[in-house]
Design goal:
Layout (H helix, E strand, L loop, with lengths): L2 H17 L4 H18 L8 H20 L6 H14 L2 H12 L6 H17 L2 H18 L4 H12 L9 H10 L3 H7 L1 H21 L15 H7 L2 H15 L5 H18 L5 H35 L1 H12 L3 H16 L4 H18 L4 H15 L7 H9 L6 H24 L2 H8 L3
Helix pairs in contact: 1-2, 1-15, 2-3, 2-15, 3-15, 4-14, 4-15, 5-6, 5-12, 6-7, 6-8, 6-11, 6-13, 7-8, 7-20, 8-20, 8-21, 9-18, 9-19, 10-22, 11-21, 13-14, 15-18, 16-18, 17-18, 17-19, 18-19, 19-21, 20-21
Length: 447
């Protein structure tokens, strides 16, 4: 069978299965195995060889399984997930929000801004956008509603703030991107810091303008603070600051590798949680169980993607795409714009990790051929995944916020609020595209 035709058919079948809501891991893995079997069993100029095809397909399957499981960098995934679970159950992550809420209580839109900062702090430890939206949605949104905030602002600010988990390190998408593209995960983490901070500033500007135009959306708090409340609130955030410094300063200063930083920060969070008497044995066991569950889910998806990458490399789809771009004489900017559009469209229907692992086999060879920096492209991809989390009709974070808050709030109300933040998202995306130095200045200065 013609390799290019087989590759095109395989890719189309994956898209079809995803549209039918088949789990991404089974889509990628099953299609890759069947198509690899057909590739070897049905040669263009030979007879159908079932035994040979099955032998070749199983060889690729087992070799990829071995290489993937024995990847040392992959161990940081369960470690960072464990860190997120322990920090959440020890209330280390939510302390950031409570500290910001006290300091910003008299600022117009202060609770919404505190929610953004709380989500940023949560993301700086956990690295999961959906987990961030779910956890902070239970805390921030009801409190904003209790103080009279409009439902659109109260829900959309947390939904948008939750997306920071994809960009601010540690980030699971960055880890998977680094493993599959063989780029430095440490540099990817550092590359996400400035874009993440710029995103936070952009969201805060949106809130300030929103409240300025419509003050009724965010009434000022009449809460009376006692002397020393701000100082005590700031002190509550020290465990989160310490964990962030272990990860970022440790990596940037060359004290730890990324995997070592994951292990040290997870152990530190566990010790602090026990020392502050915030972690019971039941909470520790729950953290371990959730870590095992999430790790298995991510590994299964990545395992299917690893087999799919091998299949795509056999078919010649990537060289064909590169040749097509060369023949069309499109500029690099035009190609990047098309790729961004593809990511945005996929983001409306698929989950971020599924999009990432589905597109990497095709997009990365093209970007490498154009001579563009893969670290910079990784930041662009993760930013696009971030936008996809809040883009209708299937903006995952909007539905997460709907699930954890009042049933009286409709999904279209959340998306109506999100639409204001999408303007800032696209402005930030353009800045990252036009000025690659925003993403590259920190990783290029790394020791």
């Amino acid at each position: 069978m013609d390799p290019f035709l087989l590759g095109t058919c395989g890719f189309s079948v994956v898209i079809l299965l995803l549209m039918l809501r088949v789990p991404i891991a089974f889509c990628l893995g099953s299609v890759a195995v069947v198509c690899t079997f057909l590739f070897y069993a049905w040669p263009v100029d030979g007879a159908f060889d079932m035994a040979g095809g099955w032998r070749s397909a199983t060889t690729i399957l087992t070799s990829n399984s071995f290489d993937f499981v024995h990847s040392f960098e992959l161990t940081m995934v369960p470690l960072f997930i464990l860190l997120s679970q322990v920090a959440f159950h020890a209330r280390i992550t939510t302390d950031i929000y409570h500290s910001a809420r006290i300091w910003l209580s008299r600022v117009p839109g202060g609770l919404a801004i505190a929610s953004i900062l709380g989500c940023g702090g949560f993301s700086a430890i956990t690295g999961s956008s959906v987990a961030c939206a779910a956890a902070m949605g239970k805390i921030c949104t009801p409190e904003m509603l209790r103080y009279g905030y409009g439902p659109r602002l109260a829900t959309s600010s947390v939904a948008v703030g939750g997306t920071l988990g994809s960009l601010i390190p540690p980030s699971v998408p960055f880890i998977l991107y680094g493993i599959f593209t063989e780029t430095s995960i440490s540099k990817l983490f550092l590359a996400g810091i400035l874009p993440g901070l710029i995103s936070i500033v952009g969201y805060i500007i949106v809130i300030m303008v929103w409240v300025k135009v419509n003050p009724k959306e965010a009434p000022l708090s009449n809460e009376v603070l006692k002397r020393g409340d701000r100082r005590r609130a700031a002190m509550r955030a020290w465990p989160a600051v310490l964990l962030f410094l272990i990860i970022i300063v440790g990596i940037y200063g060359g004290v730890f590798t990324t995997t070592e930083a994951a292990a040290v920060s997870a152990a530190t969070a566990l010790v602090m949680g026990i020392a502050m008497r915030r972690l019971s044995m039941a909470a520790i066991l729950l953290s371990l169980r959730e870590t095992a569950y999430q790790t298995a889910m991510i590994f299964l998806i990545a395992f299917g993607a690893k087999i799919f990458v091998s299949f795509i490399s056999l078919t010649g789809v990537s060289p064909w795409l590169i040749a097509l771009v060369q023949a069309s004489s499109l500029s690099d900017w035009t190609v990047i714009a098309i790729l961004c559009l593809v990511f945005l469209v996929l983001g409306m229907f698929l989950d971020p990790i599924g999009i990432l692992l589905l597109t990497l086999p095709v997009t990365v060879p093209l970007v490498e051929h154009m001579g563009l920096d893969l670290i910079w492209f990784g930041v662009i991809v993760v930013k696009l995944l971030e936008i996809g989390l809040i883009t209708p009709p299937v903006g995952l974070n909007a539905f997460v916020i709907k699930a954890v808050t009042s049933r009286d709030i409709k999904v279209h109300t959340i998306f109506a609020g999100i639409s204001r933040f999408l303007v800032a998202e696209f402005v930030i995306l353009v800045l990252l595209l036009v000025f690659p130095a925003i993403s590259l200045i920190l990783p290029n200065s790394m020791n």
